[in-house]
Amino acid sequence: MPDIEITIPTVLTSDSEEDTLLIGTRVGQRLQRGDIVALFGDLGSGKTRFVQGICNGLAVDEPVVSPTFTIVNQYSGRNGDHRNLTIHHIDCYRLKTTDDVVDIGVDEIVSSDDISLIEWPQLVLPLIRGFYWKITIDPGDLENQRIIKIEQKAAGEHDGPRY
Ligand SMILES: Nc1ncnc2c1ncn2[C@@H]1O[C@H](COP(=O)(O)OP(=O)(O)OP(=O)(O)O)[C@@H](O)[C@H]1O
Ligand SMILES: [Mg+2]
After folding, report:
1. With a threshold of 0.90, does the pTM exceed it?
2. If you measure from the C-alpha of residue 125 to the centroid of ligand 1, how many angstroms do you get, rounded to a whole number?
């Protein structure tokens, strides 16, 4: 894929995991202190790959691994202004209720100045104030193809056709 500049909203076709990493990187370079990224998509759609791209765009220099079992992983990064940032990568797949989400401190994380990157974010959406980045990854026609939609939504503006 040629290099990309992201306009929002946009829909991009990724033909490989490298494409998804690049798109994620370009989004990561746009993130500001306090931003929340909610990633929608089925199991194995590429949410964690996209997060690895975002972390690359935020100059995280440690390996970014799926928080499936830990639920929250934390990294240090910095944005284009060379400001240090704390990044929380959260996977809510195994959580059942909004109380579970609050118990592990996700409400505090999304209210903070840190960056929140959230897989399976449905239970977290009611806790979000302000706006969030909504990333939706759908399968394409080919095995390694993904259709990636990038939007910014106001809190409360949660009703899409599928979620
Ligand atoms: N275009 C693509 N973009 C991203 N991943 C791809 C693509 N094509 C194939 N893949 C593969 O799909 C898988 C995506 O895995 P990943 O862990 O990112 O999914 P996930 O959405 O985080 O899943 P989970 O819901 O289980 O956390 C990887 O094995 C990756 O190699
Ligand atoms: Mg994942």
Report:
1. yes
2. 23
Give alpha helix (H) positions in 33-79.
47-57
pLDDT (mean) for 78-102: 94
CATH superfamily, domain at 15-153: P-loop containing nucleotide triphosphate hydrolases (3.40.50.300)
Q: Where are the domains of the chain?
A: 15-153
Q: Quick one: tokens of 92?
A: 């809510």
Protein residues whose CB sits closer than 6 Å to any atom of ligand 1: 14, 16-17, 19-20, 41, 43-49, 66, 119, 144, 146
Query: Separation of 89 CA from ligand 2 center, angstroms?
Result: 10
The rounded Cα 104 to chain-centroid distance in angstroms is 18
- pLDDT at residue 69 greater than cutoff 50: yes
**How far separated are the first and last CA of the chain, in Å rounded?**
29
The residue count for the chain:
163
Question: For 10-61, what is each residue's pLDDT tens digit?
Answer: 999 999 999 999 999 999 999 999 999 999 999 999 999 999 999 999 999 9
Q: Residue type at 47?
A: K
**E strands, the chain, where?**
10-14, 36-40, 72-78, 84-91, 115-119, 131-139, 146-154
